[in-house]
Design brief:
By secondary structure, the protein is of the alpha+beta class. It has helices spanning about 5, 65-70, 90-100, 110-125, 130-145, 150-155, 215-220, 225-230, 250-255, 280-290, 355-365, and strands at about 15-20, 25-30, 35-40, 60-65, 75, 80-85, 160-165, 175-180, 185, 190-195, 200-210, 210-215, 235-240, 255-260, 270-275, 300, 325-330, 335-345. Helices cover about 25% and strands about 25% of the residues.
């Protein structure tokens, strides 16, 4: 892939942390000042990245343009726990309630959507989660019979934070991304992903696709694990843009995340998620993810999405769902582009390289002593 197909237009002004297989196994790399650096002399895993301009003492292995034209990137996270925050935008809250009330039946969703948007659409957009106003809105919705567990995490004091994907199971830019073969109602979720150290402080951000099975989760919230955690169901990439004077958490707060789906039959769907409309600040979501928990190897946190596709693809009233072969492109001006092709989780390449395999690989390369 070319620089233009992956990194943002201002990539020369930023520093990007990621992983690639350079022939021996997964290798942490850094792109800075137009050059690519092999970071294994400093940190054998991305999770051990120490911060600072560690490349100053290293020799570049290639120019970035040539490297990315010839080398496939892996997911930029490795030993990080992969977490996700759900229902962090008003529209996604409404759509989750629709899933719940339709019991995963996309055909029943239209009437429910119209009723909910008429009753709570404006109110839920303006309320601050956990505030007195939120408590008042909650009581009114209970009295109207419209309360839901999804509205609880949308406007209540506690955010929804769940584990999205096992360590080392995420896929990167260009890889296939999987939906369950027995799902008939699903969609991509284009999100910003914060990558954090063991102290809970974000070192940078990337793009992510938190694939969502609307039928499974709609049937029961207890099916969340089955709806969210399947083979190849979590993509992160293209690289982690490290925070510096030119790219900060305020850029995450202001980010616009674009989505384009191109179907094999010529179907095209476009959407945008505006982080300025998030209900909970990213720092608050990090705080809640760290509350009474530890992540000694760091963690990645999906921040949620405003995007909820409701446009019909096939039959009127059936809404959107993926087809095998869909090309999903997620992009943001300061973070670059993450593209994946949809397949089923059953047909996706098996995940065989686990933690023990990584340890054996690092040991064979003489890198464990640097861990």
């Amino acid at each position: 892939m070319s620089i233009a197909a992956l990194l943002p237009v201002d990539w020369r002004a930023g520093r990007f942390l990621g992983r690639a297989d350079l022939g021996e196994g997964p290798t942490p790399i850094l792109i800075a000042r137009g050059q690519v650096y092999d970071l294994t002399p400093v940190c054998p895993t991305v999770s051990l990245y120490p911060g600072g301009e560690v490349e100053r003492g290293l020799g570049a292995i290639d120019e970035a343009e040539a490297f990315l034209a010839e080398t496939a990137l892996l997911s930029p996270v490795d030993l990080h726990c992969v977490k996700a925050a759900g229902v962090t935008f008003a529209v996604s809250a409404i759509e989750r309630v629709i899933e719940e009330r339709a019991r995963g039946d996309s055909g029943a969703a239209v009437a429910i959507r119209e009723k909910l948007e008429a009753r709570v659409g404006s109110g839920i957009r303006s309320v601050v989660p956990g505030s007195d106003e939120a408590a008042t809105l909650k009581q009114a919705l209970i009295e109207e019979g419209l309360w839901s567990q999804y509205l609880e995490v949308a406007i209540g004091p506690d955010a929804e934070i769940f584990t999205k994907s096992p360590i080392l199971s995420t896929v990167g830019a260009g890889a296939q991304i999987g939906i369950r073969s027995d799902s008939g109602w699903n969609n991509p979720e284009p999100e910003v992903v914060l990558v954090c150290g063991a102290d809970g402080r974000a070192i940078g951000a990337a793009l992510g696709n938190d694939v969502n099975l609307r039928d499974f989760e709609g049937r029961s919230a207890l099916l969340l694990g089955k709806a969210k955690d399947n083979r190849a169901s979590c993509a992160i990439g293209p690289m982690i843009r490290l925070f510096d004077d030119g790219f900060t958490m305020d850029d995450v707060r202001a980010a616009e995340v674009d989505l384009r789906i191109e179907g094999p039959e010529g179907y095209v769907l476009e959407g945008r998620s505006n982080m300025a409309q998030i209900s909970r600040d990213p720092e608050e979501l990090l705080r809640q993810a760290m509350s009474e928990h530890d992540y000694p190897d760091g963690f990645a946190l999906f921040l949620g999405t405003l995007f909820a596709p409701i446009q019909d693809r096939d039959e009127p009233g059936r809404g959107f769902t993926h087809r095998i072969g869909d090309r999903v492109t997620i992009s943001s001006r300061r973070l670059g582009t993450l593209t994946n092709i949809v397949t089923t989780s059953k047909a996706a390449a098996p995940w065989r390289f686990g933690v023990a395999d990584l340890m054996r690989n690092l040991a064979a390369r003489g890198l464990l002593a640097r861990a």
